[in-house]
Design brief:
4-stranded antiparallel beta sheet; Gyrase A, domain 2; alpha+beta
Length: 614
């Protein structure tokens, strides 16, 4: 009896914890139904304000639905290992650039890894890899091994960094899997702002602090580029002396010739770049992509002074009349400091304005270098460059000894928060690009939910009726255990913030079959014992004891198979495996403990006899 008291207490605790874990899900559904029932937006808004804390708490703790049920994004992303290889190279001359072009071209038709293609191209041209990679004393095999390890590490690092960004963004149970040597499979349920997620995932977060060259050097560089492109140097005169036929929009003098955004194809660079009276070189918003493509050309870069590059601002500035333009900067190519020294980033609002910004703190090494850099460049501009775009270029007013810096020029708080996320998560080892993207809409998800619930209801109903019809009162005990089984599975998913997907529902349906199968084994054993003339209590004891080994074996093997599926499966397979593991454990508990306690209670009170097992 004491043993039964302990078992009863255990069952009660499990049931109460399960209900407690599922309650937020029920409450979230109830509140959502109430909100949907309001006819006027005023009533809906008032209800939301009055119950804001309860709504947010219920939504946070409720059972999360997977991509196929809730809707969201499915992406296939590829890590650009060619860019990684170029980062590792030194002394990159025209011949190296030609080799890389050949390797990239070969990769379009070959399944080999970028490192294998690179090694083959160097061997074909009879050039040692040590000419461009690592130490001159390294053999080709040593360099290939190092590049292979760098490539493997890059994929692992990219996966972890993207996971950190997604976790900070707030997506529940994201699915992130590697595929091959370069690809990542990502599933994000409940995502509604696809553009924001794309920017968050694709941003390399390569933060650099670079010195800005003097305006005179910038003008000379632009004139040199124009001359190379067969354009007249006079096109770079101040804005008020540029002819109206070619003059871009300027904050100081509004051009009559460029009144509406037009596609700048076929235009010369001088026709879409101008100079303001204060010496700022700029391009209008409509020509931004065209100018960026021209400035990124290798022949254009070769015309610039040594160790310099031309970069565009990340965000446009606006004139009093509403015209938008992007400033162009000539910066030192070698950064004074990189984002590796950043220890903390925080989205906030500026002290002197309502514009959002991101404040950053540096580690001890970064603080020391930042103090030296700012102290040596008072009165000069230092550009804060993120992923090749200048976010801000403040003038150093004094030495900064505490390692603090700020990124401004940000248009919204969401953008500031995204910058905070990617800076905290760290820079990707190489750029990533989206190869495939699918969006699952909420209407499709609701259809799947309806179908999944119907399958659960019909499956449970069929099993419950069969057990009662075939096993009489014992079947009712099995049905009660089955209800607790399903309750445990859903509560564990909700409690650990796992997501329920369509394959997960299939796992629950399979669990119901397994739970009933365990009861069938026990009941048939009890029937055999009763057939041999044993008393009811003795038959129940013998039935549980003799069926235990078979039940344990079947459940352990199922757990092992489900564990392997969860470790090596991808996406939907993992969802199915996790649910199956939880259900199998719950099934073992309900079949061995719960039904046995029910039988002991009913037999002790005279509610069961030999005919109660059918």
């Amino acid at each position: 009896m004491k043993n039964n008291r302990f078992k009863l207490l255990l069952i009660a605790v499990v049931a109460l914890v399960s209900v407690w874990s599922i309650w937020p899900t029920y409450r979230d559904q109830q509140l959502s139904s109430q909100l949907a029932g309001f006819r006027s937006s005023e009533d809906s808004l008032k209800f939301t304000i009055d119950h804001r804390a309860e709504i947010e708490q219920a939504r946070e703790k409720s059972l999360k639905l997977g991509l196929d049920l809730r809707g969201g994004m499915h992406l296939v992303m590829e890590v650009d290992l060619f860019d990684l290889i170029e980062q590792k190279a030194w002394n990159k001359d025209a011949r190296f650039q030609q080799i890389m072009a050949n390797v990239k071209s070969a990769s379009a038709t070959s399944g080999a890894s970028p490192v294998e293609l690179l090694a083959a191209e160097f061997k074909r041209q009879n050039i040692p890899l040590s000419r461009y990679f690592y130490d001159i004393r390294n053999t080709d095999k040593e360099i290939v091994d190092k590049l292979d390890k760098e490539s493997q590490d890059a994929l692992v690092r990219a996966k972890e960094i993207i996971r950190n960004r997604i976790d900070q963004y707030g997506v529940a149970e994201p699915v992130i899997q590697t595929q091959g040597a370069r690809r990542l499979i990502i599933e994000l349920s409940g995502v509604t702002d696809e553009n924001r997620v794309r920017k968050l995932l694709k941003g390399t977060a390569k933060l650099e602090f670079k010195l800005v060259k003097e305006p005179e050097a910038l003008l000379r560089a632009m004139e040199s580029v124009n001359a190379m492109l067969s354009e007249t140097p006079g096109a770079m005169a101040p804005a008020d002396s540029v002819s109206s036929a070619s003059k871009p929009v300027s904050p100081d003098t509004v051009a009559a010739g460029v009144a509406a955004p037009v596609r700048p194809s076929g235009k010369k660079l001088s026709e879409v770049v101008g100079v303001m009276k204060n010496g700022v070189v700029f391009t209008p918003e409509y020509a931004r992509d065209y100018v960026a493509s021209v400035l990124s050309r290798e022949d254009v870069r070769a015309r610039l002074p040594q160790d310099t590059e031309l970069l565009l601002a990340a965000k446009p500035e606006q004139t009093e009349k509403g015209e938008k333009y992007y400033p162009i900067f000539l910066v030192k190519k070698s950064p004074e400091l990189t984002g590796g020294v950043i220890t903390e980033a925080k989205a906030t609002f500026g002290t002197e304005s309502v514009q959002p910004e991101v404040s950053m703190s540096m580690n001890e090494e970064g603080t020391s270098k930042w103090a030296r850099i700012t102290g040596a460049n008072i009165g000069k501009q230092i550009a804060i460059v993120l992923d090749g775009a200048v976010y801000s270029a403040p003038v150093v007013q004094s030495r900064i000894p505490n390692g603090n810096s700020v990124i401004n020029g940000i248009t919204s708080l969401d953008e500031a928060k995204d910058l905070e996320i990617i800076l905290k998560a760290g820079a990707l080892p190489a750029p990533v690009r989206i190869l495939e993207e699918r969006t699952v809409g909420p209407s499709l998800g609701s259809d799947y939910i309806r179908a999944g619930l119907q399958s659960l209801i019909w499956g449970f109903t069929a099993v419950a009726i069969f057990m009662i019809f075939y096993y009489n009162k014992a079947g009712i005990a099995a049905d009660l255990a089955l209800v607790l089984n399903i309750l445990i599975v859903i509560s564990v998913l909700a409690g650990f913030k796992a997501s329920l997907s369509l394959p997960g529902i299939a796992g629950i349906v399979l669990t119901m079959g397994m739970a009933v199968d365990a009861n069938v084994l026990i009941y048939e054993r009890i029937r055999e014992e009763l057939g041999e003339g044993k008393l009811l209590n003795s038959a129940i004891d013998a039935g549980y004891n003799r069926a235990f080994s078979s039940i344990l074996d079947s459940h352990v093997t199922t757990l092992a198979a489900a564990f392997l599926l969860s470790q090596f499966g991808v996406g939907p397979i993992q969802g199915f495996a996790v649910t199956l593991m939880i259900g199998t454990g719950a099934s073992l508990f309900t079949a061995i403990v719960v039904t046995r306690v029910i039988f002991d209670l009913l037999v002790g009170r005279g509610f069961m006899n030999e005919k109660s097992f059918g």
